[in-house]
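Predict the assembly for these two chains.
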Amino acid sequence: MAKEPDSTRRSERSRRAIFDAALALVGEAGYAKTTIEGIAARAGVGKQTIYRWWPSKAAVLLDAFLDLGAQAAEAYGEAEIPDTGDLEADLKHVLRATVDELNDPRHDAPSRALAAEGVINPELGAQFVERLLEPQLQLYVRRLAAAQEAGDVRPGVDPRIALELFVGPLAHRWLLRTLPLTHAYADAVVDYALHGLAPRP
Amino acid sequence: MAKEPDSTRRSERSRRAIFDAALALVGEAGYAKTTIEGIAARAGVGKQTIYRWWPSKAAVLLDAFLDLGAQAAEAYGEAEIPDTGDLEADLKHVLRATVDELNDPRHDAPSRALAAEGVINPELGAQFVERLLEPQLQLYVRRLAAAQEAGDVRPGVDPRIALELFVGPLAHRWLLRTLPLTHAYADAVVDYALHGLAPRP
């Protein structure tokens, strides 16, 4: 393996330190009180180092979350929804992984801070949706469209709406903390959404 | 009709002015920057008038939201989910009304401010759920349990989980602003949840 130049390794170390500092700060202090200065101080880098790579606080935080998402995808295997041919098993697998990720304390505080800010700040919310959320939702669109082609989803069902029957309930429990997020809950949501609440004739 | 004593009418006017001021301020400035002093100034009452009735900012805001919810229930007929014997029609009716309420600009800013604070503030979030949200969710529990008794919901389905297939997707769209909240969307959610995404044999 070729040796990386020192400057590349230094840059990568700074980048990592900046992301860690940004996520820690936003989780502790909230979005409004997180500043580029605070991130720089905590990361042990100059403020200009951050401004060289990112134009704003929102930009560095979104990249930090994208990086966290990439790590989660590796840890929880969420890069693509598996297609074993068994839609119910595949959806239970991915919803259980989502439950684990939402319950992971490393993700909880920063993710809540970003979500809360997005609820009241339409501009940040739109960036959050476009860069972080919608790409994840498109994984469901692809899996559900494949299932539809295989005859496992009713013709006429819109996959972009259907996926919300899976992610909506989980997000609702997580954001509003109504009841515990468990694997059993994930399984029930998949069962109810696929087979319907009404009795089958 | 008996004439109300002047002091009762004055109290009711103050109460209304305090609720209006609290909702307006939290919608404009956010939860953190809303203060009892600010509410009192805007409502044109003394700060002691507020402290006589409520122990804290959270308490007056929760009561203001309960009052707003009561007004919405009147405007949108949401006090109870209708039971015409047609579960699908009844659910579409209530979900369309919820869409109208979520799209109502009078509710949007204060409701977002409270929801955002609940996402990052577990204590306020728990009060919000217990006093505002869970009573609304119990309306679904009752309607779905009645439908189950009538044979319109599969035996074994847990109504407290099932309702999240209706409210979760709507809350997801509203909170995260992914796509427009429309009556057609509400209808699709009801259709998919009741009849399932999988083809019926």
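The mean pLDDT of chain A is 91. The CA atoms of residues 9 and 157 of chain A lie 49 Å apart.
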